[in-house]
Amino acid sequence: MTTGAAGQHTLQVQEPFATSLRRGLPLVWATGSGDDLTATLGWGEAFRATARGLDRFGTLDDAFTRWAARQGPDANPVAFATLTFAHDSSAESVLVVPQLIGRWAGGVLTVASQVAEPVGARLPRPSVPGEFEELELLPGTLTRQRYRQAVAAAVGRIADGEVEKVVIARDLLATSPDPLDVPALLARLQEANTASWTFHVDGLVGSSPEMLVATTGDRVHSQVLAGSAPVTGDVGLDDVTATRLAASAKDHAEHAYAARSVAERLETVATVSTRDPQVKRLRRIMHLATDITGTLHDHHSALALAGIVHPSAAVCGTPTDVAFRVIAELEGFDRGRYAGPVGWVDARGDGEFVIALRCGQVTADGTAIRLFAGGGIVAGSVPSDELAETARKFLPMYEALSPVDRP
Ligand SMILES: C=C(O[C@H]1C=CC=C(C(=O)O)[C@@H]1O)C(=O)O
């Protein structure tokens, strides 16, 4: 043990990332690969706030700010948060300040206490990997057929002029007779999705490629994704697909709604510049991606900024309020935290929130995970193509849950 700058103990452990993930079931935020893999992990609970309704962002932000102010001027505690997509969700939005915060980089886990007098805060010992799970994949609320029908209905509403773009999602339930080995799931997600942010907050687990908002000081950044095409692993074929995606009028139209929604909302609080869309290639799918950067006029925490830009048209639609209502009507299920912001924020307000995509929510008893995937519907969208696109968006979770082929 050594003494840190804030007068608190720090501990360094040299170990692989997968071992750090096995110490209890930490809160997790991880990205990168090889020597560039970095992660923030949290253990224990020094403070927890929950919120519902339209003001859930403000409620959590205020609660954290008040709690952090009581920790003394030198402390800069980090909180993890996951917020629901819809204000009227039956799920809770949650913010947790872990007692211990660990930063993993270059094979070394550096752990510090976030509270002056941690009560029973001890870095858990690594656990043994669980038995391989026999997973059963069950249809969710929207079966394949009902998903295609919902997309067709959305295309009809667009043709009628009710809405311009709407994102329709479906769900799947993966069940196991035994509790899921979440650390193993997280390790596999991180290994396979190094250009994404792998997270675990309050049972929400996934690897999202879409940075909703990241802020350091007065600088703010967002990378909007919308418009998709498959990645096969055959580089020649994928190059052709990328060229086609970059030239697709339909995908650019779908993308532009999303990029505009974020840029317009950030412009209310920052001086913003928007780059031209590029193709961002992931392991199984590629997207059109627009980087938006800005300088904030006044202080806003990352959590407050997430509340300003959420829900973007990458997960809701245009106009926002109409698309929100159409989603409720056509999907007919509660998205919970899927498509809501998930990330971390510190007491200075710096932080990163991705959109909770390519993810699932572990059930309370730990033996099932509800997976979600959706797609942006615009004029010209074809239901069977959209179904195939959602199947591809399930792959990061599905492959991490089912790492070996079984007959
Ligand atoms: C809604 C999802 O993806 C969004 C992000 C990127 C591309 C999208 C699309 O092309 O439809 C979606 O807007 C999802 O993964 O569930």
Automatic annotation (TrEMBL):
UniProt xrefs under InterPro entries: ADC_synthase, Chorismate_C, IsoChor_synthase
Entry keyword annotation includes Isomerase: yes
Transmembrane segments: none
Enzyme class label: isomerase
EC numbers, comma separated: 5.4.4.2
Keyword Isomerase: yes
Signal sequence, start to end: none
Key words, A-Z: Isomerase
GO molecular function: isochorismate synthase activity
Family classification: Belongs to the isochorismate synthase family.
Protein name in UniProt: isochorismate synthase
